[in-house]
Specification:
With about 110 residues, this protein is mainly α. The protein contains 4 helices and 3 strands. It has a domain of about 70 residues: Rossmann fold (3-Layer(aba) Sandwich), CATH 3.40.50. The protein has a 3-stranded parallel sheet, sandwiched between helices. Helix 2 links the parallel strand 1 and strand 2. The radius of gyration is 18 Å and the shape is globular.
Length: about 110
């Protein structure tokens, strides 16, 4: 029965502080984006992009749009950027989702 306590488990305090730091960094990203003129965030929801979507929604001054299909999100964001003459942030999961969004910019 030797060994250290919680062997093989993460320290909950360390995990919380890392999550808090990541959340604060995400808020800082969207705060800087807003300062640079971003007014719209287009989200293609997924479990890995949820923290970004939540942070964008909680920060005032950003309008968050949800598009389920990444291709639609890309073209929708392009239309927003062209019609408002402002940059638009796109949020998606990793992997092929970003490749699908890229079709709007080619």
């Amino acid at each position: 029965m030797g060994g250290t306590p919680n062997q093989g488990q993460q320290d909950p305090d360390r995990s919380e502080s890392a999550a808090d730091a990541l959340y604060l960094a995400t808020l800082a990203f969207f705060d800087e984006a807003a300062a640079a003129g971003v007014r719209h965030v287009v989200v293609s929801p997924g479990s890995r992009s949820t923290p970004l979507a939540v942070a964008a929604r909680r920060l005032g001054g950003l309008r968050v749009w949800v598009q389920l299909d990444e291709r639609v999100a890309g073209f929708f964001a392009l239309g927003l950027a062209r019609s408002t003459a402002t940059p638009v942030v796109l949020v998606c999961t990793s992997g092929t989702a970003s490749a699908k969004i890229g079709r709007a910019h080619v």
